[in-house]
Design a protein that fits this description.
alpha+beta, 6 domains, Ubiquitin-like (UB roll), 15% strand, binds manganese (II) ion, Beta Polymerase, domain 2
Length: 712
């Protein structure tokens, strides 16, 4: 699209006249006069009067026919931030809707997207959620960003690079998802120009050098295609199409040479109806031989951002390859402006908003996530599900489901519905039964077999890809564990009361005190906390009898920073070919029964047993000896785990998970605290199977980021 820059309101007004009524233009003018007054005297880094910026943002929006409220908001968008105008003042003058739009954009503009500290992550969440509540805010933000990128030359080199990177990381993926190709493609080209100026100008130069030749080919091909369509009375328009510099850069970056990029010669054919698209295609194919693999029917199967068109590549005049796109004018509007081709001027929730919520799975995922999960999960999910590589698979009914690359049938099932996910028992892909950890591929047709009484498996957490599926599986287990703990806690407490001969009425008199001291909302939460081991029944009853030491204090005293003494090994490990030799357990990797192990012969000390994965033995080949666990042992051995957590008070929950298993905590110490909290916990455990289950249990604790075995 041609870039137009304006410097007065009349130019904007001329554009608005094409689609906005007079009353609304008056409202817009009021906003302009207000903004012009407020920004008076302010200058941009480019030296221009400040008002030029909001004016051009409004103009960019008028090019995609934004509604009048959005145009007003565009003119006013920097007045809260830069002119100390209040929300109330805006609402009084321009109404609630415009005020809300300006307020949202002001919040978003305060955010710096680069960096990865928690505060920024939390902010990213706010912006994305804020954006999804009114899609016009996103489009306004994209227009704002576009004008800022057009005037980026005025900033320092460092800020140019930072802004360009942020644009490519955050804004172009969003523009792509919304199908707003016109803005996306200009943003990409501008970003490339500042990020990789050498590559950018090299491409520009090459394009300029070959321009005359390419223009001749294209003109000749256009005439030829036009002739065949005219012969069959198909009314049409044809345009030569230039490929964006960024898309050429991407292809060169993938190792293609300039001459291999065959859609450098490209045409776009516009017709009135869908039927004529196919007729035109047939006629073109009958005259120019197509390359079969390059044909795509995005009319029958629109892209998830609503894009529709036919794509074909043919051998054109002189054997040159031409990429031809065929579409109706309506399809072209959607292809260029995506979601922004659906502005509606009615009150309430716009068509555009509901269209977005229905059609764009991208936003459904965000909307769903905004109420559940931690900030961290949310951002992971946005990065993974939304901004990364995606595949498109089908339901048996032909609905398209969009998933991140590497997704499995379980991810698919949860994307369709959490009920389906929870009750999945098997999957059929393209008529073949596949395992549940099968990696789905583009265009797979996926059928999920369910059984009403079936429930999720912890195993799934090891292979599902989407954060959505992970959260749903965890939520399922948290809920069922909660129910179990509630029942168990009630029983335990009643038993303790009977044992200590405390009547129900005395207990009832003390409920308020119990709840406030133990920080529980209600009696149900108290039961759950007893059931999960956070509080012991005796500790609860102690509060009634005023004999009060918290369990946390007891445990901490018991476990804090204690040196772990490795047990002696006798007959628990079998050394191949040797009886009666002294065997020690290595303290660096602390193997337990079930681990693959290897012995290392130490002078004078017998054999030290390491885990096979322990890096401390990896280069000692000649002194290694085969050793095996005696499968019959039941003795517990110590081993250490590293737990990474988002907060510092996970001890009680870790202990609670432990009390449900026959694992003993030997020591618990805090290693460091930066953004994450890292703990080293040493446990006594019988075998690897039990340890694996325990580690999975720990991973279910909210705020725990990772649990790994420690090797020193
Ligand atoms: Mn701005």
């Amino acid at each position: 699209m041609k870039v137009v820059k304006i410097n007065n309101f009349e130019q904007l007004e001329k554009k608005l006249n094409k689609y906005v009524n007079n009353a609304e233009i008056e409202e817009i003018k009021k906003a302009y006069i207000f903004a012009n007054e407020k920004h008076k005297g302010q200058k941009r880094a480019s030296g221009e009067s400040y008002i030029i910026h909001p004016l051009n943002v409004a103009y960019i929006l008028s090019e995609i026919h934004a509604d009048s409220k959005t145009i007003q908001a565009a003119l006013l968008h920097d007045t809260i931030e830069d002119c100390d105008v209040t929300k109330e003042e805006l609402e009084k003058n321009f109404g609630l809707e415009v005020m809300k739009l300006v307020e949202s954009i002001t919040k978003i503009n305060k955010i710096n997207f680069s960096g990865d500290t928690e505060a920024i992550i939390a902010n990213q969440r706010k912006i994305l959620v804020g954006m999804t509540e009114d899609v016009r805010v996103i489009i306004l933000k994209l227009a704002d960003r576009l004008h800022n990128m057009r005037t980026l030359w005025a900033l320092s080199d460092k800020r140019q690079k930072a802004n360009a990177k942020e644009t490519l990381d955050i804004f172009t993926p969003i523009a792509h998802r919304l199908g707003i190709n016109s803005i996306k493609s200009e943003l990409e080209d501008l970003s490339l120009r500042y990020l990789k100026p050498d590559a950018y100008y090299q491409i520009v130069e090459k394009l300029n050098k070959t321009k005359v030749e390419r223009d001749n080919y294209v003109a000749e091909m256009m005439a030829s295609v036009s002739k065949v369509l005219n012969e069959h009375n198909i009314k049409h328009k044809i345009k030569g199409r230039s490929k964006s510099i960024y898309s050429i850069y991407k292809k060169l970056d993938k190792g293609k040479s300039f001459n291999e990029i065959y859609d450098l010669l490209a045409l776009r054919v516009f017709v009135d109806t869908e039927a004529e698209c196919y007729q035109a295609l047939g006629l073109i194919h009958s005259k120019f031989r197509p390359i079969p693999k390059r044909f795509k029917d995005y009319i029958a199967m629109p892209k998830t951002n609503m894009y529709q068109s036919l794509h074909t590549t043919v051998f054109g005049i002189d054997g040159q390859l031409f990429e031809i796109q065929i579409r109706t004018y309506e399809m072209d509007k959607v292809a260029e402006n995506g979601i922004a081709s659906h502005w509606s001027y009615k009150e309430g929730k716009s068509n555009m908003q509901s269209e977005m919520e229905q059609k764009l799975q991208f936003f459904r995922v965000i909307m769903e996530l905004k109420n559940e999960g931690s900030e961290e999960q949310f951002v992971d999910s946005v990065k993974e599900d939304v901004l990364k590589d995606t595949i498109y698979v089908f339901t048996p009914l032909g609905d398209v489901i969009e998933l991140p690359n590497g997704s499995t049938p379980i991810d698919f099932a949860y994307r369709v519905h959490s009920k389906i996910g929870d009750t999945t028992i098997g999957a059929i892909v393209n008529n073949n039964i596949v395992p549940l950890d099968y990696k789905l591929k583009d265009n797979d047709i996926v059928k999920i077999n369910t059984n009403k009484s079936s429930t999720p498996s912890q195993e799934w957490l090891n292979f599902v890809k989407t954060t959505q599926a992970k959260n749903k599986i965890k939520a399922y287990f948290n809920k069922s564990i909660k129910e179990d703990n509630h029942n168990k806690g009630g029983d335990l407490l009643n038993k303790e009361l009977r044992k200590r001969k405390i009547s129900i009425s005395i207990f009832n008199e003390n409920i308020e005190k119990l709840l406030s001291e133990l920080k529980c909302v209600d009696i149900n939460e108290l039961y759950i906390n007893i059931g999960n081991g956070k509080y012991t029944p005796s500790q609860v009853v102690n509060i009634i009898t005023e004999d009060n030491i918290t369990k946390e204090e007891i445990i901490l005293n018991k476990t804090k920073d204690k040196e772990v003494i490795l047990p002696t090994v006798k007959n628990d490990i079998i050394v191949k070919g040797i009886d009666n030799i002294k065997v020690n357990i290595a303290s660096c990797c602390k193997p337990i029964c079930g681990d693959r192990i290897v012995g290392y012969i130490t002078k004078g000390y017998g054999i030290t047993v390491h885990r096979m994965v322990c890096p401390n033995v990896s280069n000692l080949n000649e002194r290694l000896i085969d050793v095996y666990w005696n499968e019959a042992i039941t003795k517990k051995y110590p081993t250490s785990l590293l737990i990474k957590s988002l907060n510092s008070n996970i001890l009680m929950e870790v202990i609670a998970k432990t009390s449900n298993s026959d694992i003993t905590v030997e020591s618990f110490k805090s290693l460091s605290s930066g953004n994450d909290y890292i703990y080293q916990i040493t446990v006594l455990v019988e075998n690897k199977e039990k340890l694996t289950k325990y580690m999975n249990d720990l991973r279910m604790i909210p705020n725990i980021l990772s649990v790994e075995r420690l090797i020193k």
